[in-house]
Amino acid sequence: MSFALADLAVPLIGAPMAGGPGTPALATAVSGAGGLGFLAAGYRSAQQVSEDLRAVRSAGAGPVGLNLFVPQPSTADPAEIDRYRAELATVAARYGVELGVPRWDDDGWTDKLEVVADLRPEVVSFTFALPDRAVLQRLSELGICTLMTVTTVAEARAAVAGGAAGLVVQGPEAGGHRGSWRPDERPATQPLGDLVAAVRHVVDVPIVAAGGLGTPETVAAVLARGADAAQLGTALLLSDEAGTNAVHRAALSCGEPSETAVTRAFSGRYARGLHNAFVDRFDAVAPRGYPEVHHLAAPLRRAAVAAGDPDWTNLWAGRAFAAAEAGPAAAVIAALTP
Fold first, then answer.
1. What does the alpha-carbon distance between residue 317 and residue 314 come to, in Å, rounded to a whole number?
2. Cα–Cα distances in Å, from 264 out to 268, 285, 298?
3. Per-residue b or e along 164-174, where b marks 16 or more CB atoms closer than 10 Å to that residue's CB
4. Per-position pLDDT tens, the chain of length 338
5. Structural domain boundaries of the chain?
6. Edge-to-edge strands of the sheet including 271-274?
7. How many CB atoms lie within 10 A of CB 74?
8. In sequence order, what are the residues at sequence separation of 6 or more whose Cβ sits closer than 8 angstroms to the Cβ of residue 64?
9. Domain 5-71+107-245+325-336 CATH superfamily
10. How far apart are the C-alpha atoms of 31 and 37, rounded to whole Å?
11. Cβ-based neighbours of 154, under 8 Å, separated by 6 or more
12. Coil, strand or helix at 315
């Protein structure tokens, strides 16, 4: 029998946070607290994903989820990318680093699907696009629950029609990358609660609500609107088990910057993070093109972190970031359980 959200002792899910914050220790802690811990496969090799899953399995804390980025055709304009490279180079020179190669890749899609088939996490979620029906069917036959990230009612309908067993409904308040299937368009702005209710009205599958949930009251509110569980990302960034870097932790803790912004300046795809000098300087000129821009800017972002400079790196955060607290992830889960 495959996993069901109703099996959770606590209706809370740890968001799959790629790029460092998501760790096996964090996933283990969330599952151990009665929720569902998630690993992020994004930017990890298939071998690393395998090691991460095995680490959670060996801890024996409970079920685990894994998130995969679904590859999409490149939308980058080479001329625009070249212009952006010149803009970024002026800042990269301050750190003495070379910018990256703006390449397209599929993030090891096929190899990671084989890891999934081999190790069989209880849940696999997908972000950025709907996988082929054959992929979802294969995982279902292996007893794996599949969830599709959606940001609109239209995406929700298409995901269920395409074979997804459940949905992660992401509202505009969420931190990190938007899960929109149309990355070149400005993200949808319908508030999470309203979006959950609208999706619940048209589909009959389990729903996970995600985005801007930082208090037990906001969690209870989305459950009341039709969600079966709530997903926490930013709320866990300061937890002891998270791999959040020191610069990111400090920015979240001190409340500076005091607001978030949605921009594609860091990766070529719209994402929400703390407003800083990078956003001020590059938001208006940043081109579309994920993952090309991501690879281009990555060395600059890493150099800024190494230098302890919060102004020139991405600081992903949702609108409820001020509510995030340090401490064990289990304590965060307990505090946010409605």
1. 9
2. 5, 10, 13
3. bbbbbbbbbbb
4. 578 899 999 999 999 999 999 999 999 999 999 999 999 999 999 999 999 999 999 999 899 999 999 999 999 999 999 999 999 999 999 999 999 999 999 999 999 999 999 999 999 999 999 999 999 999 999 999 999 999 999 999 999 999 999 999 999 999 999 999 988 778 889 999 999 999 999 999 999 999 999 999 999 999 999 999 999 999 999 999 999 999 999 999 986 668 999 999 999 999 999 999 999 999 999 999 999 999 999 999 999 999 999 999 999 999 999 999 999 999 999 999 99
5. 5-71+107-245+325-336, 74-105+258-314
6. 176-177, 271-274, 260-263
7. 16
8. 27, 31, 36, 37, 38, 39, 53, 56, 57, 121, 122, 123
9. Aldolase class I (3.20.20.70)
10. 5
11. none
12. coil
Using alpha carbons, select from 59, 3, 17 the residue that is nearest to residue 231. 17
- Cα torsion angle, 226, 127, 117, 230, sign: negative
Specify the 3-state DSSP secondary structure of 317: coil
Give Cα 21 distance to the centre of its chain.
10
49-62 burial, b if ≥16 CB within 10 A, otherwise e?
A: bbebbebbeebebb
Q: How many CB atoms lie within 10 A of CB 106?
A: 13
Q: How far is CA 179 from CA 79, 127, 171, 204, 283, in A?
A: 26, 6, 9, 21, 19
Distance of alpha carbon 314 from alpha carbon 277, whole angstroms: 10
> What is the distance between the alpha carbons of residues 66 and 31, in angstroms, rounded to a whole number?
13
pTM attached to this predicted model? 0.95
Location of structure tokens 């992401």: 170
Question: Tokens 């029998």 map to which residue?
Answer: 1
On whether the CB atoms of residues 218 and 191 are closer than 8 A, the answer is: no
CA distances from 278 to 17, 230, 302 (A): 21, 31, 13
